[in-house]
Design brief:
Elements: H1 2-14, H2 24-34, H3 51-63, E1 67-72, E2 85-88, H4 89-94, E3 106-110, H5 115-125, E4 134-138, H6 144-155, E5 161-164, E6 168-172, E7 180-183
Parallel strand pairs: 1-2, 1-3, 3-4, 5-7
Antiparallel strand pairs: 4-6, 5-6
Helix pairs in contact: 2-3, 5-6
Length: 186
């Protein structure tokens, strides 16, 4: 618990709001998604109506992915809320689908795996990326190991933009963008 408290204080010290963002792509995401105060009717359909799950809902709504791959624990997001196909990694493996046969617009790493396991999933799934792919890593500050994993992911040569919202780490592979890291208060 002390680790999370220290991490949160450090996060607050380094974080910015929309006024500190100079990337049009990230500015639009922050102002039109993160800070969207709309009380969506779908919130009442969420099994877990926490701020974090509502933020995840808005992010998915904003990007409108066709296919979402979820690694780890279920997110509490009902597939009926979205027009997206949500596939669990376990389902993917059970059906013996090949990673090479699929691209995912959105991947949600919702697990508390070891650094080695998370990075193995990350490397395995890199072959599925598109320029507009959105990857979200959950709980990047819950432990020193998770924070170290996040730092490794941020430095990966294919990663162009990352956003730390404290709850999530967001990863983008946009070839047209300069490598940049943002810490945003939500």
């Amino acid at each position: 618990m002390l680790h999370i408290f220290k991490s949160y204080i450090k996060f607050l010290w380094n974080s910015k709001n929309e006024h500190g963002v100079h990337s049009p792509f990230v500015f639009d995401l922050v102002t039109k998604c993160f800070y969207d105060k709309t009380k969506f009717p779908e919130y009442s359909l969420l099994n877990n109506n926490s701020k974090k799950i509502r933020l995840l809902f808005r992010i998915i709504r904003y990007f409108k992915p066709k296919t979402i791959l979820e690694i780890g624990n279920p997110t509490e997001l009902d597939t009926n809320i979205f027009s997206s196909e949500i596939i669990s990694f376990e389902e993917f493996q059970k059906n013996k689908l090949s990673i090479n046969d699929k691209t995912f617009d959105f991947i949600y790493f919702n697990q508390n795996e070891s650094q080695k396991t998370t990075l193995a999933y990350f490397e395995l799934l890199l072959s599925t990326i598109t320029n507009d792919a959105v990857w979200i890593i959950n709980d990047i500050h819950t432990s020193t190991e998770n924070e170290n994993t996040w730092e490794i992911i941020k430095k990966h040569p294919k990663v162009k933009v990352t956003i730390d919202t404290f709850q999530f780490g967001m990863v983008f592979f946009r070839a047209e963008q300069e490598k940049e890291h943002f810490v945003i208060r939500v």
